[in-house]
Amino acid sequence: QNTINMIDKWNSETYGIKNACSEHTDLWNEIQTQVNNGWFVPSRAEWSAFGTNLGLTSSNYLTKNLSNFYWSSSLMSESYVYISNFNGGCIIGTDVSAFHSVRLATTF
Fold it and tell me: What is the DSSP letter of 25?
């Protein structure tokens, strides 16, 4: 539901003008088709469980072909979102306009 809520806010421009940056593709525009097919942006709790269950650490996440930062679907406020920080081994907050990787999840 977090992902759907964030897409709704993107569509209504709660976070600002859509696709305001010509150098980067907007995450929420790009994932809408996948979300409609059952994929979602993991929450901060799901990222934490993912990291714990796979034994991810600041020294091994690169060997698993992961980026340092990934978006979560958990909001801190209308201006800040939680992201996973594998290099730091934690979940931190960042501005919603920040540029970070995204990885979608699904359930089977």
Answer: -
